[in-house]
Amino acid sequence: MCVIERFYNSLARYSTQDLGYNNNYIKKWGESVKEFTESSLKKFNGKDDKSVYIAYKGKVYDATGSKLWKTGTHMNTHISGRDLTAEISAAPHNESMLERLSVIGTYREDPQDERVPTWLNNILEAHPTLKRHPHPISVHLPLAFMMGSSLFALIFLFFGHKSFESTSFYLFTAGLISTIPAIFTGLFTWWLNYKLSPSIHIKLKIIFTILVDLDALILLYMRLNNPSILSSIHTTPHTSTYIYLILILLLTPLTTVIGYNGGELAFPTKK
Predict the structure, then answer these.
(1) Averaged pLDDT of the chain
(2) φ, ψ for residue 106 (rounded to 5)?
(3) CA 47 to each of CA 69, 70, 71, 265: distance values in angstroms, whole numbers, following the listed order
């Protein structure tokens, strides 16, 4: 048995050194390979002096000793304790960065969520990026449009060119339209990944999304009924002119709250 054991450990050593594998995937004789699931892996996120583990393509890597994962998060983007297959595949670097880490087990998906229909689960398994990325992608459009509307309204105040006022109007209109897919993808992400858990960040996102949309709808109504409502600020301003201006400038702080809380969900600052 000792001969077999020595042969096995030699195989492990040569496979990791001579064959280009810098991770110790083949364990020593008698050492069991740990199996992790989503629920068991999330405990190893580097918080409270815990180890830092990440999963990639069915393998679990130990990043505890890596300076790049010192806080449990890599580049303030990739959070440990999770399966990062989709994130690493979409990152500027490839999986070669993982060669410096030791493989300490295998990763197995948790049993299918009973809430998710089979047809939808098949799509998500085939395209894992759909589990998290649609909402972060779609929500940037309305946020940018709304903030841009405030910016061009200010530019119009300084320079007085009608084109800046028109651009401001078109931007918050585009923001209002692009809010529709952002809301649907947000609700889908909330249901799929957070199981409709009403965390403080999600509550604030919902509340301020409603406020932004109400703000934009009021602006749209006022602008359609009086196309020169903001332009009149340089000639004969009325009370409605200043109300319109205040509402359009409010779009920026309101959307900032939405963006901040969305960022806290994706990349929490509290360790």
Answers:
(1) 83
(2) -115, 160
(3) 11, 10, 8, 16
Q: Position 64: which residue type?
A: T
Same domain as 173, residue 60: no
Q: Which helix (H) or strand (E) holds 177?
A: helix 162-194
pLDDT confidence of 251, banded at 50, 70, 90? very high
Work out the burial of residue 141: count CB atoms within 10 Å of its CB; fewer than 13 is exposed, 13-18 middle, 19 or more buried: middle
Q: In the predicted model, is pLDDT for residue 131 greater than 90?
A: no
The CA distance from 25 to 102, in Å, is: 7
Q: How many CB atoms lie within 10 A of CB 126?
A: 8
Domain membership of residue 112 (yes or no) is no
Shared domain for 67 and 150, answered yes or no, is no
> Same domain, yes or no, for 57 and 155?
no
**Hey, is 21 helix, strand or coil?**
coil
Dist. CA 126–CA 93, nearest whole Å? 22
Taking the CA atoms of 132, 134, 135 and 140 in sequence, report the sign of the dihedral they define: positive
b/e sequence 64-103, b meaning 16+ C-beta within 10 Å: beeeebeebbbeeebbbbbbbbbbbeeeeeeeebbeebbb
Residue 168 shares a structural domain with residue 207? yes
User: Whole-structure pTM over 0.85, yes or no?
Assistant: no
Q: Which residues contact 107 (CB under 8 A, 6 or more apart)?
A: 35, 36, 37, 41, 55, 56, 58, 59, 60, 83
The structure tokens listed for 206 are: 């919902």
Q: 233 and 157 in contact (C-beta within 8 Å)?
A: yes
Give the model's confidence band at 270: pLDDT under 50 very low, under 70 low, under 90 confident, else very high: low
